[in-house]
Recover the amino acids of this structure.
């Protein structure tokens, strides 16, 4: 390797680090400002004019989340192609809906935000998360004010409060989407093997491209929201074959990943909710259908029908540029002034701040990787006690935070018991 090539690679790595550190600074500092404004709105409007509170809070959420979205759209120059019947595609975003999406890629949550932003409903994109995430500044605090669903991961507790939380979301005047990753964690070969061993033991459908869906949360939600939310959207996500994997770190590096999305609208009235068994059977059959869609996609590199390309949004670009100027420029000027003073104490403070930001950035990127999700029976820890196919900590809604724990023991009996503990009430 020549010296010039080596120097280029070093400069590229250093430049990427400073870019990521700068974006982290802007995201965190602007996010804290949004959290403060959200708190003020909550104290003054939530109990007196909830509709106005939600409309104003929508923009605070948008200003925060679209900074991340701008990385996908503009830093990596990526977009999406949408497939499906015209009625399904055109109705998405015009009504309250539950979204059932496959959970295979590290950036599938970014793609869901991309579509929500295209439909001008990014601030009303909802999901569920474990209760501990409430304590995380910017993201967790923003989710509190955004009325996200937080769960104790104990079904005995969650089932008492989940209905009220769903009713709050259903009462929104503007359309919302409630995103469910029913697989509970992102797909890896190891998790898939554990999932299919569980499916065999329970005589459930075997899937090639998905993990077995966890049914308890969807069963409850479908039954509770019937008559309040009109539709379920089956959305299938795929990325064409590429040498690079669609990860958030690769987005930061500038690699492009154009996603393909298949839309199917299903009236919620068509989902059987007379019993948990009937709803579970419907969900398993849907995932068999999703598996066939994915099989065809890998063979043809496209979903059925004609695709419509959805371009990048200038809204996310302008929003990101504004906050990078408003916060980033004063911050960069402050660093320059400190470094040019020659004061070692101030320089050490700046260095410490950069190390802390690097740590935050590292853990944020690490958390987006598929192998950092829940173990789905691959974590070698003692199995939880199982009752009726669910762990004691069984959560009501399949959670994007992905922290369900399981375990694998050498004896076959313990393997089956443990997979039962990690499969959320199948």
């Amino acid at each position: 390797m020549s010296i010039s090539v080596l120097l280029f690679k070093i400069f590229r790595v250093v430049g990427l680090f400073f870019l990521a550190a700068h974006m982290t600074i802007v995201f965190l500092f602007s996010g804290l400002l949004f959290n403060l404004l959200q708190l003020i709105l909550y104290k003054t409007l939530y109990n007196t004019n909830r509709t106005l509170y939600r409309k104003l809070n929508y923009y605070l959420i948008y200003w925060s989340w679209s900074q991340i979205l701008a990385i996908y759209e503009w830093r990596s120059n990526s977009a999406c192609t949408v497939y499906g019947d015209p009625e399904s595609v055109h109705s998405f975003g015009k009504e309250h809906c539950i979204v059932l999406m496959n959970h295979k890629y590290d950036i599938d949550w970014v793609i869901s935000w991309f579509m929500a932003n295209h439909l001008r409903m990014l601030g009303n994109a909802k999901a569920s998360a474990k209760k501990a995430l409430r304590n995380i500044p910017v993201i967790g605090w923003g989710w509190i004010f955004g009325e996200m669903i937080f769960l104790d991961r104990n079904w005995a507790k969650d089932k008492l409060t989940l209905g009220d939380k769903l009713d709050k979301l259903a009462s929104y005047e503007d359309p919302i989407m409630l995103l469910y990753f029913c697989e509970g964690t992102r797909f890896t070969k190891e998790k898939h093997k554990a999932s299919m061993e569980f499916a065999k033991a329970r005589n459930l459908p075997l899937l090639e491209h998905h993990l077995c869906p966890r049914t308890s949360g969807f069963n409850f939600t479908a039954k509770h929201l019937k008559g309040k939310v009109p539709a379920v959207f089956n959305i299938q996500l795929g990325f064409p074959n590429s040498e690079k994997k669609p990860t958030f770190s690769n987005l930061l590096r500038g690699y492009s990943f154009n996603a393909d999305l298949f839309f199917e609208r299903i009236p919620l009235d068509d989902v059987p909710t007379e019993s948990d068994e009937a709803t579970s059977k419907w969900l398993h059959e849907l995932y068999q259908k999703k598996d066939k869609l994915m099989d065809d996609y890998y063979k043809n590199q496209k979903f059925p029908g004609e695709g419509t390309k959805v371009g990048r949004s200038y809204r996310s670009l302008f929003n990101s540029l504004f906050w990078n100027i408003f916060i980033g420029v004063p911050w960069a000027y402050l660093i320059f002034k400190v470094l040019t003073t020659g004061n070692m104490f101030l320089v050490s403070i700046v260095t410490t701040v950069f190390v802390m930001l690097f740590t935050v950035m590292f853990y944020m990127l690490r958390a987006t990787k598929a192998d950092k999700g829940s173990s789905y029976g691959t974590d070698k820890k003692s199995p939880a006690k199982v009752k009726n196919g669910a762990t004691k900590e069984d959560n009501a809604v399949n959670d994007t935070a992905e922290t369900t724990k399981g375990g694998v023991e050498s004896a076959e009996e313990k393997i089956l018991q443990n997979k039962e503990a990690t499969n959320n009430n199948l």
